[in-house]
Amino acid sequence: xxxxxxxxxxxxxxAGIKMGVSSIDDVLKYVHDxxxxxxxxxxxxxxxxxxxxxxxxxxxxxxEGKDPNAMAKSMSWLKTNVxxxxxxxxxxxxxxxxxxxxxxxKSLYKYLNKYKAADEKSKDITKRLIGxxxxxxxxxxxxx
Length: 144
Description:
By secondary structure, the chain is mainly alpha-helical. It has 5 helices and no strands.
């Protein structure tokens, strides 16, 4: 049961990180404020750092991870591009990122509760990812 829950939790984190990095990439070209751009780039780098640790764990369990749900990713991309085409502003970027982070945190807590038997390393990675999402949300507040 531990290994099953661990792999499931790691897969969900993997999909979440991929979705987060993709979302940051989608909005970066619309950012005007240099501080906002820096927050986003730093967060992207921190996501990649967690992803590296996560990939090592997945490899140790002989698992390839998980891609984000194709429909969710497509809808996110469409929403981002429509909103930013209509209003190319930093407050729209901040709103989109905040919304995505909030959804990510909610999902990650749901998976932490669902996969209670996961090992501590996997739970720690999940908690690091939650902390990163909460930090990014806090950094977006001045731009809303």
